[in-house]
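Batch manifest, entry 17 of 40.
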Amino acid sequence: MPKSYSAGGVSVSQKGDWQGFDNPALLAVRERCGLSLVYENRFAMKELSTQQLSLSLPTPLINIGVAVSRFGYSSYNEKLAGISFARTFDELFSMGVQFNYYTVAFSRSLGSKGVVVPQIGLLSEVTPDFCLGLNVFNPMHQQLKYQEIVKDLPCLFTIGMQYRMAESFRWLLQFDKEMSSRLIVRSGFEYYPTKSIVVKLGGYGAPLTPTLGCGVMVGGFVFDVNFERHPVLGITSVGALRYNF
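Output type: structure tokens
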């Protein structure tokens, strides 16, 4: 799945903005249908690019989301397709579950193999200005096994918050922990000089990977772009086009 276009890559608590595979509970608070296209160019190499398409559909009983993502090139690629269901139970609690199907195409000779990967998310609007989000991806630590190949899939726990410090200023904070990796801390700030423009500044990891981005809203369309610079590997860019209708 592509990186988040939010400041610092913080996405688990972004109320009103569901990004496909980040936190299905965010889908619960959406009031309008939405279509999103995301493209990531990792380290300026097209072979490492990721494309994602997602659709959200609110209904009176439960909100539904569908998302697909593709990474790689013709000789090796990974695909992730998911369907999510989310609902708000009261002002303080929203929950979402997502069922993902992950497939890997190893090569033309080896073919492809897939596995179902569950995901669960929670969202709490503690106050009108403070939100908490929690997401667990692959809680059962599923593995993909094909012939003699065993591919570990990440078991990722994410918790984060969004705090509106002023009408035009937000602080984002997130903690990512994958079972076999060290804790990653993400943080960022979003500044809204007008209601239709946002400037995003953040960073994550150690050594620090800084991020810089902006977003522009025109009618029902929202265009986001984000850049991050790894201290060794270089620049990754993420662009997103969203439409709310």
